[in-house]
């Protein structure tokens, strides 16, 4: 049995994660308004190719094509009754790409529902996250990554539902915007320091941040997390810079070399698993792996 991610990190290892999935799927033919997660069933070879490309680039961990795989998200495509099938297949595909040695992180994103607005009950959220986490576990995931969270109550419920219904390590990342004041906050006003104790108490093994920032901004977020907790493993998935609108297209400006230039500084700040989010490619991950594995 291979060691857990936390055990590897305790040995002093810095791990490399994968990059963006959505733009990769679009490049392979995913059309606007089409369900990305349904590709696990209808185009598994394309999803497998994406996963393999990140493993070949040097990633130690790869996610699953299941970010929008909750019943609430799939309901919009008439697929709410296929949550288990779609998520299990997502994990099976990434497991095939990862083999026995690399790690599969089952991706769970926000539901789009807000407790504060009365859109949903705590019990409904819990059951939705439980359903997705169990399916990803059954498909062969090594850990669950609950990501791109902005509301602390939703993140807490997702962590608890995963912890209480699977035997997998639980990772939770929130997405923070850089305010004009210089502070980092989620859309719902949560700071990096505020999330730590709440999500640890809910059962998170690994914490961190993804999206909304390039790798330089993630250094500051990591330092904030480390200011209140020196020990908990930290995962960072940074964008390839802040998005720029060029004509009708959104472009992420950081090249693989630009992103890799900050990798050792991010690791020194306390990040233990480093990968990419929007705009990053296998080339970005390859450069990160080169730098971090020599570091």
Overview in brief:
With 295 residues, the protein is α/β, with parallel strands linked by helices. It contains 13 helices and 12 strands.
Indicate the structural class: alpha/beta
Architecture per CATH nomenclature, i.e. the level-2 architecture: Alpha-Beta Barrel
Can you tell me the number of structural domains?
1
CATH superfamily: Homocysteine-binding-like domain
Percent helix: 40-55%
Low-confidence sequence ranges = none
In round numbers, the mean pLDDT is 96
Number of helices: 13
Determine the N-to-C terminus distance.
Answer: 27 Å
Main sheet summary: 8 strands, parallel
What descriptive keywords fit this protein?
295 residues; alpha/beta; TIM Barrel; 8-stranded parallel β-sheet; two-stranded antiparallel sheet; 12 strands
Give a verbal description of the structure.
- The chain is an alpha/beta fold and 295 residues long.
- The chain has a single domain (5-294), classed as TIM Barrel (Alpha-Beta Barrel), CATH 3.20.20.330.
- Helix content is 45%, strand content 16%.
- The strands form three sheets. An eight-stranded parallel beta sheet has the order 1-12-9-8-5-4-3-2. It has a two-stranded antiparallel sheet with strand order 6-7. A two-stranded antiparallel ribbon has the order 10-11.
- A hairpin with a 2-residue loop joins strand 10 and strand 11 (249-251).
- Helix 6 crosses helix 7.
- The longest helix has 17 residues, at 122-138.
- The mean pLDDT is 96.
């Amino acid at each position: 049995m291979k060691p857990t991610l936390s055990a590897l990190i305790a040995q002093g290892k810095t791990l490399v994660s994968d990059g963006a999935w959505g733009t990769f799927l679009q490049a392979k033919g995913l059309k606007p308004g089409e369900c990305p997660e349904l590709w696990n069933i209808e185009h598994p070879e394309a999803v497998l190719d994406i996963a393999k490309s990140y493993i070949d680039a040097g990633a130690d961990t790869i996610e699953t094509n299941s970010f929008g795989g909750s019943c609430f998200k799939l309901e919009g495509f008439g697929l709410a009754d296929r949550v288990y099938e779609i998520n299990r297949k997502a994990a099976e595909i990434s497991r095939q790409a990862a083999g026995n040695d690399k790690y599969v992180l089952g991706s769970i994103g926000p539901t789009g529902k807000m407790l504060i607005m009365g859109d949903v009950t705590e019990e409904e959220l819990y059951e939705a996250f439980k359903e997705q986490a169990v399916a990803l576990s059954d498909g062969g995931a090594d850990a669950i990554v609950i990501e791109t969270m902005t509301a602390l109550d939703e993140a807490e419920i997702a962590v608890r539902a995963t912890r209480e219904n699977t035997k997998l390590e639980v990772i939770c990342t929130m997405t923070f915007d850089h305010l004009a004041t210089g502070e980092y906050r989620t859309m719902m006003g949560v700071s990096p320091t505020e999330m730590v104790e709440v999500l640890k108490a809910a059962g998170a093994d690994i914490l961190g941040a993804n999206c909304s920032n390039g790798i330089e901004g993630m250094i500051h977020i990591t330092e904030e997390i480390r200011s209140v907790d020196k020990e908990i493993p930290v995962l960072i998935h940074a964008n390839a810079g802040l998005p720029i609108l060029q004509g009708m297209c959104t472009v992420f400006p950081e090249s693989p070399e630009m992103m890799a230039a900050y990798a050792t500084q991010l690791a020194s700040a306390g990040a233990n698993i480093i990968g990419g989010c929007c705009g990053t490619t296998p080339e970005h991950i390859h450069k990160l792996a080169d730098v971090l594995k020599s570091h």
